[in-house]
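Quick one, probably user error.
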């Protein structure tokens, strides 16, 4: 039994917002800098990777809440 349901729900919502922020950053970054440089491509890959990570965290937390 999970006693901290509100905490897990808040962390899940925060993770969704963080994922949206990372994906938004990956979407906006090419507007301001050239995507031909290797460091820019690595930065975009990092942004998308962190977006997926936070989305996965949110899915896992929501799964914990549904199992109850």
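Nope, works fine. Designed sequence:
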């Amino acid at each position: 039994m999970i006693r901290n349901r509100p905490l897990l729900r808040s962390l899940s919502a925060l993770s969704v917002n963080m994922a949206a922020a990372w994906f938004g950053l990956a979407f906006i970054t090419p507007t301001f800098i050239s995507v031909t440089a290797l460091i820019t491509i690595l930065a975009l890959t990092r942004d998308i990777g962190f977006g997926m990570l936070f989305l996965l965290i949110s899915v896992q937390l929501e799964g914990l809440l549904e199992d109850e």
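Residues 22 and 47 are 5 Å apart (CA to CA).
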